[in-house]
Amino acid sequence: MIQQQLAEGVxxxxxxxxxxxxxxxxxxxxQLSAALQQAVADPTVRVVLLQGNEQCFSSGNDLQDxxxxxxxxxxxxxxxxxxxxxxxxxxxxxxxxGLAIGIGTTVLLHCDLVYAxxxxxLQLPFTQLGxxxxxxxxxxxxxxxxxxRAAQYLLLGxxxxxxxxxxxxxxxxxxxxxxLLAYAASKAKTLAALPVEAxxxxxxxxxxxxxxxxxxxxxxxxxxxxxxxxxxxQQRLQAFFSRK
Length: 244
Hints:
Elements: E1 2-7, E2 10-15, H1 26-41, E3 47-51, H2 63-67, H3 77-86, E4 92-96, E5 99-101, H4 103-106, E6 113-116, E7 121-123, H5 137-145, H6 147-154, E8 160-161, H7 162-168, E9 173-174, H8 180-192, H9 196-206, H10 210-228, H11 231-243
Parallel strand pairs: 2-3, 3-4, 4-6, 5-7, 6-9
Antiparallel strand pairs: 1-2, 7-8
Helix pairs in contact: 1-3, 3-10, 5-6, 5-10
């Protein structure tokens, strides 16, 4: 369900579960983590590009699958992915179209460059499910968007567009949907052609707060796990599954 293609130093990871709007299940998380870990060790991979297709990036977690995996410890596929993507040392790009919900948005906070099609719907609906932020979004989103806007999206869970995301700095450029994947690939190839060590050292300097990010991920997961078992969350999840 995660298609991999390596060309000109760019490893493209394509989410291919379009019948479920690229909802990420445990198998996909494992595949993404393994691909990123292998990319770290593979000198032929200089850049990674994460994408869905021209219609959809990701509708977030496959909740039923997510809930079946038990406690949120380091062996949990979602937790492993969060730490892996947060610590990834090589350039990570994203091409976003259609939906980017939950992890579909928070993963973008760990990308170095993000390109999006017009009219995307991004959303962080954690409180609406009785949950709290994850993937260090409580730290990273205020840094990018400012506190009040981050509170709007993390407390109220309001959706926002790719144009709004570009205005506050989460998205680098809004690109026509028909050109999106090719445009993102061209930017990835441009990065891959640059001197490797210079790019890696530059990213490392930009990511100097990495230890703090990992601490925030751990703190969020602790609260997330507690909230997941709360009555309020269970009621919200039951209502969600009933609607579906």
